[in-house]
Design goal:
single chain; mainly alpha; 76% helix
Length: 344
């Protein structure tokens, strides 16, 4: 029952993440770089900080935790957060050229597979005494393979969509649709985004041990990863503000109330995925396989819900029944990948 509850919590987080781009459509008179960094303040700084505080028992503090932790682990967690930040930037571009459904599917698929596997591999390279590779069991690898198979099927559906619709129809659904450019960017985004889980691996010991509720133990590491990502995004967004002469966006006081509200909502929905991941893993302790696969499961469910949103937003409008059938098969395979490893 606890395992089922853990998966449900992760699924709720995935649904929230897949919905986080909807509030952005309500933002007015701001350039992309302006609203991206403002929502990032909430998604990558404010909310992760509040989450990390939940991992701090009474009488202790985050500063105490970070100063007591080996500095190498702290900086490696932040470093992979910086790399993840690159993935976050290109992630947005992948949806620009492919749409919410296909863009998220390809990027998150790559992220799911590489993020799950690279974490233990790199951790083992620096700390062989931890035997991190033991977590990559046959069941885990099968789970990753099934996830990637589901992503590949959805990718096929996306290619069928691109081939079956005219240039005008593709651009009606996604304004800047470009399959080849979007594919390359999505794969890069997936590789870099997978660094989030690598950062969590290096930071998984950054907590107060048994004094910290198991549901909150990864939240301090999550804060460090998102902090690194915020630095990357801030540098790029401020560069774009300068390049595009959009510093004036911050002076548009008439829209601040509206835009701040929807940036907060978007940031909260985005952060929900990793808050839910931490809570969900607290219920998966009896299953080492699902604990290792939790990040992969989260990404798989993100893909499922992003395609549901893609259908709602009519990004698949005009596609043949065969294309929709392939898409549905891919979604079903991804859902199966969430619990199949537990049955092996």
């Amino acid at each position: 029952m606890e395992i089922f509850l853990g998966l449900i919590i992760i699924a709720i987080g995935a649904f929230c993440q897949s919905s986080c781009y909807v509030p952005i459509n309500k933002i007015k008179d701001w350039s992309w770089e302006t609203y991206w960094i403002i929502q990032g303040v909430f998604a990558w700084l404010v909310l992760p900080l509040l989450g990390a505080l939940l991992a701090v028992p009474a009488g202790h503090s985050l500063c105490e935790l970070f100063t007591a932790t080996q500095s190498f682990n702290i900086w490696m967690t932040i470093f992979f957060g910086v790399l993840w930040g690159v993935g976050g930037l290109t992630f947005g571009l992948s949806m620009r050229y492919l749409g919410v459904a296909l863009g998220q599917s390809l990027a998150l698929g790559t992220c799911a597979g590489l993020g799950t596997i690279l974490g233990p591999i790199l951790l083992n390279a620096f700390f062989p005494e931890l035997n991190a590779l033991e977590s990559l069991t046959t069941a885990v690898l099968i789970g990753v393979i099934v996830t990637l198979a589901g992503i590949a099927i959805i990718g096929v559906a996306g290619n069928m969509k691109a081939d079956s619709l005219s240039e005008e129809e593709n651009r009606e659904a996604v304004k800047d649709f470009n399959f080849s450019k979007g594919l390359a960017i999505a794969l890069l985004a997936g590789l870099m985004s997978g660094c989030f889980n690598v950062g969590l691996e290096f930071g998984k010991g950054i907590n107060f041990g048994y004094l910290t509720n198991p549901m909150f133990r990864t939240l301090p590491a999550t804060l460090l990863v998102t902090l690194g990502g915020f630095v990357t995004n801030a540098i790029y967004c401020f560069y774009q503000n300068q390049k595009n002469h959009t510093w004036g966006d911050y002076k548009k006081t008439a829209v601040w109330g509206n835009n701040l509200l929807f940036c907060l909502l978007a940031g909260a929905l985005w952060y929900s995925q990793f808050f839910g991941l931490s809570l969900g893993k607290g219920f998966l302790t009896e299953s080492p396989t699902l604990t290792t696969l939790a990040f992969c499961i989260l990404m798989a469910l993100n893909v499922v819900f992003s395609n549901v949103w893609g259908i709602i937003l009519k990004e698949w409008k005009g596609c043949s029944r065969r294309t929709i059938a392939v898409l549905i098969v891919g979604i079903v395979v991804l859902i199966i990948s969430c619990f199949l490893p537990q049955l092996i």
